[in-house]
From TrEMBL:
It holds the Pfam family Kinesin. It comes from Anopheles gambiae. Gene3D superfamilies: Kinesin motor domain. SUPFAM superfamilies: P-loop containing nucleoside triphosphate hydrolases. Keywords: ATP-binding, Coiled coil, Cytoplasm, Cytoskeleton, Microtubule, Motor protein, Nucleotide-binding. Belongs to the TRAFAC class myosin-kinesin ATPase superfamily. Kinesin family. KIN-14 subfamily. ATP binds at residues 506-513. This is Kinesin-like protein. CDD domains: KISc_C_terminal.
Length: 762
C-alpha cells in the first residue's frame, strides 16, 4: 500500500486479503475500494453531507480520508469530468462502431492518436490516471475479453499479452509516476468500454456469450473441419463472431442498465455495501479467470492441433509436390508412349499396305510362275531339239572350217600367183608436188600417158622428151591412201609367209621419206603397213592363226650399221651374217635389238624412237635430209595350232638416203658413201638383169642387207621418187633410168617360207 496514504481502519473488516487464482493479480487498491457498486443503492437514500459543508457545519469528519477518496468518488459523480485522454479516444471508438478489439487498441496505442495528456507540470492529470487505473484495469480486462470473444482470437492473444505484462512493482507499491506507455495502454483500453459500472455489470454476460460462441466455433472446427478444410472452421468461427457481436449488443443494453445502477452512489461510509460490491466483483473476476483458463487450455489444444495440422499440411504439400512430379513424369511417359504408338501405328499401316502389295505381287508372280513353267517345259523340249540340230550344225561347221582353211590357202596361192604375174620386183614412180615455198622453181613438163607411163619434157629450151614405163605412175595429187592401196597386197603376202621388201629410191628432197614415213596428218607406207598387219592378225585369228610380231630398226650411215632402238649410247658391232648355209641369200644382223610388239601403239612408239635416232641434216634439196639408209624390218610369225602349221613372213621397209650431186654437197664423205652404196645397188640390179653368175651383194652394206630381197626369195617393190623441178632434171632422168632397169629385172619365182624344226626358215 501507498506509504504516504495510511491504510484506513475500515479496510481491516474483510476477513482476509483478496487473492486471485494463478498469476492474476487484482490491483486492489484504495481507489477501487472507493468505487461505487450495485449494492451502494441500499445507501442511496443516506446522503452524506459534503465534507466541505460538514466542515462548515462543524461535523466530526475525517477530512483527510474524505479527501483521499474523493477522486474515486468523483468518477461517479455527474459533475465529474473524465480526463482529457478519454474524450480524445471516444470519437475513434465510436467511428469503429464500438467493436474495437485488442489488436486495434494496441495499434491505436502505438500511434499518436490516443496519446494521453500527461504533460501537466503539476501532475494533475497523472493524478487522475493514478486514481482510475485499478478500475480501468478491470474494465479494460472485461471489455477486451468482450471485444476479443466477439471479434477474433487475436484479441485473446492480446489480452493474454496484457496479463503477462503486469504493472511495475513501483506502480503497485507506491504512488510514483506510471510510465507513459503503460498508462497509455491502459487508458486507451479503458476508453473502448462503457462507463465502469456498466462494464462491471455487462461483463459476465458478454464474456459468457463470446466464450460459448468461441467454444462452439472451436469444437465445430475440430469435429467438422479437418486441418485441411480449415475454411469450414473459419466460417463457423465467423458465425461465432457474429454471435459474439450479438452478445456484445446484448451486453451493451445490460451495460446501460448497469450504468444506471452504478450511478447510484455508495456512500463512502457504507463499507458493507462497498465490500459486497467488491465481493461480487471478485466473484465475477474469479469466474472470468476460470473461463479464461478453460479458454487458455482450449487454445493450447488448438495450438497443438494447429501444429499437427501444420505438420500434416507440410507432409501433404511434400506429398503433393511428389505426386505432381510423378504426374509430370507420367504425363511425359504418356506423351512418349502416344508418339511411339502413333509411329508404330503408321509403321503398321505401311507394313500392312506393303503386305497387301506383296500379296498382290505374289498372286501375279504365282500366275506368271505357272505360265513360265509351261514355257520352260516347251523350251526344254525346244532345247533338246536344238541340241540335236546343234550337233548337226557343228559337224557342218567343222566341215566348213576345213573348207575355209583350204580356201584360204588357195586364196594365198592365187594371190601369190597374181603377184608373180605382176613380177617379183615392181617399180612405182611418184612425182611429188612443189611445196608452197617452191613456187618460184621451174618445173619440168610432165605428161602422164597412162597409169604406167610418163613423158618427161625438159623445160630448159632443149625440148628433150623421155618416156618411162613402170608398174604404176603416181602424179603429184596422188594421196598417201592411194599409194598404200597399191602396196597392201604385198603386205598380205608377208602375212601369208613371204618375204617382202619395199624401198624408196630417189634424189634428195624427192619425197622418199614422205612416201615411206609420211607426216603427222598424212601417214606413209610404214605406219599404214603396221596398222594393216595388226588388223590382218585379228582377222587371221578367226582361221586359227596366231601371229607374233617382231621389229628391228637399222641405220646404215657411212657404211656402218647402227641400231636405232639402242638408246644406251654404247656402240655395238652390228654385223650382217648368213642365216643358213644352204640358202646363201638369207641374212640377219647380229647384236641388233629385236622387239616383240603386241599393239599398234607400241610399234608406233618404237618407230618414233627410231626416227629420232636417225641421222638427218640439211642438204641443197632438203632442209631435213635423211643422210643414211634406214631399214625397218617387221617379222611375222604365224602359228596354226590345230593344223600345226607355222608361216614366217617379213617386210623390209627401206628409206634410202638421197643421192646428191657432189657439186652441191657440203659433206663429201657422207655424199660419197651414199652415192657409192646407191651405185652398188644399181650394179646388183644390173647383174641380176644380165643374169650374171656373180651378183656383187657384198660390195656395200646396203646391197648385202637387201640381198634376200633383191636376189632371193622376196617380193620387192621399189618407189622411184622424183622432184618436178627443171633444176632436178638430170637427177630425175638418172633415177627414172635406174628404176626402168629395176623394173625390167625378172627375179626368180618367189617361194613361200617353210619352217624347220629349229625355227630356221627355208
Ligand atoms: N607427195 C608429196 N606431197 C606433198 N609434199 C611432199 C610430197 N613428197 C615430198 N614432199 C615434201 O617435200 C619435202 C622433201 O621430201 P622428203 O624429205 O620426203 O624427201 P627425201 O627424198 O626424203 O629427201 P632426203 O633424201 O634428203 O631425205 C618434204 O618437205 C616433204 O614434206
Amino acid at each position: 500500500m501507498d506509504s504516504r496514504i495510511p491504510k484506513p481502519s475500515f479496510l481491516k473488516k474483510p476477513t482476509g486479503p483478496l487473492s486471485l487464482p494463478g498469476n492474476a493479480r487484482l490491483p486492489l487498491t484504495r481507489d477501487l475500494l472507493n468505487l461505487p457498486s450495485a449494492n451502494s443503492t441500499m445507501f442511496a437514500k443516506v446522503r452524506m453531507p459534503s465534507p466541505d459543508k460538514r466542515s462548515e457545519s462543524g461535523a466530526m469528519v475525517n477530512r483527510a480520508k474524505l479527501r483521499r477518496s474523493r477522486s474515486a468518488m468523483d468518477l461517479n459523480r455527474p459533475d465529474f469530468h473524465r480526463p482529457k485522454y478519454t474524450s480524445t479516444l471516444a470519437p475513434v471508438a465510436s467511428r469503429a462502431g464500438g467493436n474495437i478489439n485488442a489488436s486495434t487498441v494496441a495499434m491505436m496505442v502505438s500511434s499518436d492518436l490516443v496519446k494521453p495528456v500527461q504533460t501537466s507540470s503539476n501532475g494533475s492529470r497523472v493524478h487522475h490516471l493514478r486514481r482510475s487505473r485499478s478500475a480501468c484495469d478491470i474494465a479494460m480486462a472485461s471489455n477486451v475479453s468482450c471485444s476479443t470473444t466477439s471479434s477474433s482470437a487475436s484479441g485473446m492473444s492480446s489480452l493474454a499479452g496484457f496479463k503477462r505484462q503486469p504493472l511495475p512493482a513501483a506502480h503497485t507499491n507506491s504512488r510514483t509516476a506510471v510510465p507513459p506507455a503503460k498508462v497509455s495502454k491502459m487508458t486507451t483500453t479503458s476508453t473502448t468500454i462503457p462507463p465502469r459500472g456498466a462494464a462491471a455489470v455487462s461483463k459476465p454476460v458478454t464474456h459468457r456469450a463470446a466464450v460459448a460462441a468461441s467454444s462452439v466455433a472451436t469444437a465445430t472446427a475440430r469435429k467438422v473441419a479437418p486441418p485441411v478444410k480449415s475454411a469450414v472452421g473459419a466460417k463457423v468461427g465467423s458465425s461465432a463472431k457474429l454471435n459474439g457481436s450479438d452478445a456484445s449488443k446484448t451486453s451493451g443494453v445490460g451495460a446501460k442498465t448497469a450504468a444506471k445502477t452504478m450511478n447510484k452512489r455508495i456512500p463512502p461510509y457504507d463499507y458493507k455495501a462497498r465490500f459486497a460490491n467488491l465481493t461480487e466483483k471478485h466473484k465475477a473476476l474469479m469466474e472470468k479467470h476460470e473461463k479464461l483458463q478453460e479458454e487458455h487450455a482450449s487454445r493450447e489444444s488448438l495450438q497443438e492441433l494447429y501444429d499437427e495440422c501444420t505438420r500434416e499440411l507440410e507432409l501433404l504439400k511434400a506429398e503433393h509436390a511428389q505426386l505432381k512430379a510423378e504426374l509430370e513424369t507420367i504425363r511425359q511417359c504418356n506423351d512418349e508412349l502416344s508418339q511411339t504408338n502413333q509411329t508404330l501405328s503408321a509403321s503398321l499401316d505401311r507394313t500392312e499396305a506393303e503386305l497387301n502389295k506383296l500379296r498382290e505381287r505374289y498372286t501375279v508372280t504365282d500366275r506368271e510362275n505357272v505360265t513360265l513353267r509351261m514355257q520352260l517345259k516347251e523350251l526344254q523340249e525346244r532345247a533338246a531339239f536344238l541340241e540335236e540340230e546343234n550337233v548337226t550344225l557343228q559337224d557342218a561347221n567343222q566341215r566348213n572350217t576345213e573348207l575355209l582353211f583350204h580356201a584360204n590357202i588357195e586364196r594365198k596361192d592365187l594371190h601369190n600367183m597374181v603377184m608373180d604375174l605382176r613380177g617379183n620386183i615392181r617399180v612405182f614412180c611418184r612425182v611429188r608436188p612443189p611445196l608452197p615455198s617452191e613456187e618460184h622453181r621451174i618445173e619440168c613438163g610432165w605428161k602422164y600417158l597412162d597409169e604406167q607411163s610418163i613423158e618427161l619434157i625438159a623445160m630448159d629450151g632443149s625440148n628433150k622428151r623421155m618416156d618411162f614405163s613402170f608398174d604404176h605412175v603416181f602424179h603429184p595429187r596422188t594421196t598417201q591412201q592411194d599409194i598404200f592401196d597399191n602396196v597392201s597386197p604385198l603386205i598380205q603376202s608377208a602375212l601369208d609367209g613371204y618375204n617382202v621388201c619395199i624401198f624408196a629410191y630417189g634424189q634428195t628432197g624427192s619425197g622418199k621419206t614422205y612416201t615411206m614415213d609420211g607426216v603427222q596428218d598424212s601417214l606413209g607406207v610404214i605406219p599404214r603397213t603396221v596398222d594393216l598387219i595388226f588388223n590382218a592378225v585379228k582377222d587371221y585369228r578367226r582361221f586359227g592363226w596366231e601371229y607374233e610380231i617382231r621389229v628391228t630398226f637399222l641405220e646404215i650411215y657411212n657404211e656402218i650399221l647402227y641400231d636405232l632402238l639402242d638408246t644406251s649410247g654404247t656402240t655395238k658391232d652390228l654385223e650382217i651374217r648368213m642365216a643358213n648355209a644352204k640358202n646363201k641369200t638369207e641374212v640377219y644382223v647380229s647384236n641388233i635389238i629385236e622387239e616383240t610388239v603386241d599393239t599398234t601403239a607400241r610399234l608406233h612408239q618404237l618407230m618414233n624412237i627410231a626416227k629420232l635416232n636417225r641421222a638427218t641434216a640439211a642438204t641443197a634439196g632438203n632442209e631435213r635430209s635423211s643422210r643414211s639408209h634406214a631399214v625397218t624390218k617387221i617379222t611375222l610369225i604365224g602359228t596354226h595350232q590345230e593344223k600345226c602349221e607355222t608361216c614366217i613372213g617379213s617386210v623390209n621397209l627401206v628409206d634410202l638416203a638421197g643421192s646428191e650431186s657432189p657439186k652441191t654437197s657440203t659433206r663429201m664423205d657422207e655424199t660419197k658413201n651414199i652415192n657409192r652404196s646407191l651405185s652398188e645397188l644399181s650394179n646388183v640390179i644390173l647383174a641380176l638383169v644380165q643374169r650374171n653368175e656373180h651378183i656383187p651383194y657384198r660390195n656395200s652394206k646396203l646391197t648385202h642387207l637387201l640381198m634376200p630381197s633383191l636376189g632371193g626369195n622376196s617380193k620387192t617393190l621399189m618407189f622411184v621418187n622424183v622432184a618436178p623441178f627443171q633444176d632436178c632434171f638430170t637427177e630425175t632422168v638418172k633415177s627414172l633410168r635406174f628404176a626402168s632397169q629395176v623394173n625390167s629385172c625378172k627375179l626368180q619365182k618367189v617361194k613361200k617360207n617353210k619352217v624347220l624344226s629349229g625355227n630356221g626358215v627355208v
